Amino acid sequence: MPQFTKEDVCYLKHGERQIMARVFKPEGAGPFPAYVDLHGGAWNNGDLNDRTGLGEYLAQRGYVMVTLNFRHAADGYPTTLADINYGIRWTKAHAKELKVNPAQVAVGGASSGGHLAMLVAMRPNDPRYAAIPCQGCDDPSVRGVFMMWPVINPLSRYRNAIRRSAEPNPPQFSVGMKEKHDTYWHTEAEMAEGNPMLILEKGEKVVMPPAVWLQGRPDQTHDYHDPDSDFPGNEPERFVSNYRKAGGDIEIAYFDNAARNTDVTHAPVHAFIQKHVK
User: Fold this and answer.
1) Which of 194, 187, 71 minimizes the C-alpha distance to 126?
2) Which of 153, 152, 145, 156 is CA-nearest to residue 251?
């Protein structure tokens, strides 16, 4: 396979606190299409190391991947979105050294990272999300959003985890999940506000780039039915239906959940960039 480089860089500082990105770059002069990647971890955990497999896969095929760390956990919503919005603008502003074509940038992520990718793409000019100034960094728009098993509805997942944790043999994902939501989101009102599912259902005017939802099965953490909704299907189908009704272009694809974070899930990201970004 073609060679690539991997480098950790500080893309943002909050006081003395450095926020890092890991940049995977193909060999060659470029410029190349870019994919800004966001790790998962229930808005509390996760880091750059989680995304190495995808970064290497894309760089070997001629794409730059910029995977971001960001404030999370007790920093709380919406600080994460401010960092990511800045990270997209930073990627474009540093296009030359990153070997990126600034007109060819998409965003995506896994689990809570998928939620964050859709939310930052929907609201590129939200003053809370665009709050960090950056000289020459003025374009937070993206060409597409690729979501891998996203937690698209933080409120329904919160309530689902609470219900499931009360079962005689609760599933592993539900243990401690309430506390993670409480740490990051603070209130159910915030879970409802920073919520792509409910944003569409209340008719908020948002940007809707071409999108893909890639969902493993079985996956009770992300692929469940919300009993508080009248929609008959699970959350992935509900969101796809809402996105299309609002005029957006979105696809959904399923895979065997045992193949998560392998070439089975890397290849669709590659195909998405080829179709919508390159």
Assistant:
1) 194
2) 145
DSSP letter at 94 equals T
The residue with tokens 């994919």 is 35
pLDDT grade for 135, boundaries at 50, 70 and 90: confident
Express each pLDDT in 223-258 by its tens digit.
999 999 999 999 999 999 999 999 999 999 999 999
Q: Which long-range contacts does 135-138 make (Cβ < 8 Å, 24+ apart)?
A: 136/93, 137/86, 137/89, 137/90, 137/92, 137/93, 138/89
Q: Which two tokens stand for residue 81?
A: 């979105």
Q: Which residues of 148-166 are buried (b: 16+ CB within 10 A; e: fewer)?
A: bbbbbbbbbbbbbbeebee
For the range 135-141, what are the long-range contacts, defined as Cβ-Cβ under 8 Å and sequence gap of 24 or more?
136/93, 137/86, 137/89, 137/90, 137/92, 137/93, 138/89, 139/89, 139/92, 139/102, 140/85, 140/88, 140/89, 141/207, 141/209
Q: Helix crossing, 154-165 with 177-185: angle to 10°?
A: 150
Start-end of H helices in 194-234: 196-201
